[in-house]
Amino acid sequence: xxxxxxxxxxxxxxxxxxxxxxxxxxxxxxxxxxxxxxxxxxxxxxxxxxxxxxxxxxxxxxxxxxxxxxxxxxxxxxxxxxxxxxxxxxxxxxxxxxxxxxxxxxxxxxxxxxxxxxxxxxxxxxxxxxxxxxxxxxxxxxxxxxxxxxxxxxxxxxxxxxxxxxxxxxxxxxxxxxxxxxxxxxxxxxxxxxxxxxxxxxxxxxxxxxxxxxxxxxxxxxxxxxxxxxxxxxxxxxxxxxxxxxxxxxxxxxxxxxxxxxxxxxxxxxxxxxxxxxxxxxxxxxxxxxxxxxxxxxxxxxxxxxxxxxxxxxxxxxxxxxxxxxxxxxxxxxxxxxxxxxxxxxxxxxxxxxxxxxxxxxxxxxxxxxxxxxxxxxxxxxxxxxxxxxxxxxxxxxxxxxxxxxxxxxxxxxxxxxxxxxxxxxxxxxxxxxxxxxxxxxxxxxx
Amino acid sequence: xxxxxxxxxxxxxxxxxxxxxxxxxxxxxxxxxxxxxxxxxxxxxxxxxxxxxxxxxxxxxxxxxxxxxxxxxxxxxxxxxxxxxxxxxxxxxxxxxxxxxxxxxxxxxxxxxxxxxxxxxxxxxxxxxxxxxxxxxxxxxxxxxxxxxxxxxxxxxxxxxxxxxxxxxxxxxxxxxxxxxxxxxxxxxxxxxxxxxxxxxxxxxxxxxxxxxxxxxxxxxxxxxxxxxxxxxxxxxxxxxxxxxxxxxxxxxxxxxxxxxxxxxxxxxxxxxxxxxxxxxxxxxxxxxxxxxxxxxxxxxxxxxxxxxxxxxxxxxxxxxxxxxxxxxxxxxxxxxxxxxxxxxxxxxxxxxxxxxxxxxxxxxxxxxxxxxxxxxxxxxxxxxxxxxxxxxxxxxxxxxxxxxxxxxxxxxxxxxxxxxxxxxxxxxxxxxxxxxxxxxxxxxxx
Lengths: 447, 447
Description:
14 helices
């Protein structure tokens, strides 16, 4: 018997209105969707009906968007995802939370609670927070340096894992006859003493249905890649070419293997924005309509932010400046910086071309076409090993997601690439990840 | 026309298994209810069917219970309450979060999110955290002193309110035609510079349906009462006699009035545990059965903790030691210390009598009797002005709550004391509280 064929994984990044910043201006869009739980619930139900692995929510700790033109990432993910979990039964719920402005004990509890409340469907997307506005919301004048943020994130994640492991699976006895409720010998302190944190433990919450929520990360920089290789079970990456993505997947997984995590321990799920039409011409028309509703001043400012340069250095009808480089040790967004530059490499792009190619978006790859064309691209990347799946960002919600689930998913299913039914009940089972035991060596770091 | 009669308010404190520590041992109890969202959802649905004002969830940041004998407060309230809100439509959802081991920006966001997700039903129960175990989970060797904890709580709450007020009600424009999304002039920094916090703001989340989530507190100490008078809209108090509760209500409300908050600005909702039977004898039998399942060693340790003395000083068949006093400036639980002492005042109680009177519980008043008897007590306190309502703690879930809603609520309704239908949609409307405007003077504290 041959091994079952490798299966594609699909998450949807539920955005406030859509990947395209002007999506809220479409005739059927509700401008208040970004603060309406029903918007997120509806998207999750569409994705669940199509057997997606998970929904994904980003997060920020300040207003980083240009709010005069577009909705913001507003609702806190763990709270919102509990409402999403209550309205679904199978789909995973992955939320972002920053290691920069939280305490590990609180984060361990919130994601463990989400795992209990969702019946084993929770994932934590580990991020560090780089913007100066966030720093000023948490008592700092400026953002801590890049290396320091990642060192803190690494220790933070170790503490969270140790807290999740501080209860054995069978610690709750609940024997009504004897009156014995919990076996105290199976609930142990973690006694963590590190550079950034001292946490005694144990967690005040039993081990979760998945053993541990799934760990997700998005590491573009060197430090980010190291964090991903050490802890991530899935990475939400950004890449515009198969070659880039394949090299990234190999690098992360080789490093993870060197750290003793086994072969291909980290699923690579590149971000993928989609604009779908019944014909290619229709898809292109939809794209142009959406782009025409984005002010160029908005896109220029956003691109300048991604590239870490003053907006005055960008001119719509000229190529990008040739001397672009992320400041050394700086807090730029490595992922989007490199992904954006890879788009123009070796070609004569004007800034206007580049903004159109990015659809005014934040640096992720955009596919415009028919369901067949999009399925072909997905299959090509998947078969080449450049992706284990994708983190989808439809142009607009819910229409763009519905276009994908109605149009693209059936093609992927017919080609044997994507499940027709859920086989498991937990996010770990959807992703094909093992359930971590309590004794995985993470418990005690240093006495 | 006369003013509409004053209406009673009822919250239910959804406990892991019930007020009585042995509730999990009842034949129909599920020992795993404490980590099962369905347990909390079911209780909320029972309470909503009976038109309760709100459900209430306590919280801790360490294991403070004797886990060998009983379930613990485990699931994090804001996440759990989002799931509860998703399964209900009208009832308020009040969650506890500590000012000691959180950041105000994060708490402002989580409760604002809960208010959005629940459609205006969120409340925040403001607590400080006194136990040494919690301190050790957040990098400290010992708990900060009482006055310092309350000074931090006061500033923390001011920052949270200012963040909630940092968006005007009409800041979101969402005009598809012009492309204008948010009016930036209506979203303002708070520029808070205080002793404990520096927070620039604004919040990255629009103003919530209630303007602000409802502020709840439980202030027993002098500092706690001051915090309640300054910020609380409802207080979850502890009192065993009408006189105590009336004096407490007058003191808090006089202080609130002196602070410019208007007459009777703070609703007083004493904790009330109930054990209900069709006859008094049946209720007493249920009580005795439950008490007989609590190990005396457990209750002695718990009482010693409440009183702040070594357990060796307590002897079941002797009176309490006569020299009890909370250590000056200490971190004892003022509310339960005084409530417990008031129970024995002027009477010859043995420690065993006292533990039976407390039902092995934590210091709150316990009523044992028929629905009629319990309704009589509720009416008496309410009419005397000793309570605006109660925070109920049924002996066991869901049976004890169902006994209350089936038995006591119809009597209260017949007597015109409690609503038969919800009139409002938000928790503020249930409680009869005004919606705070954005310009209530809390925005900027100091430049």
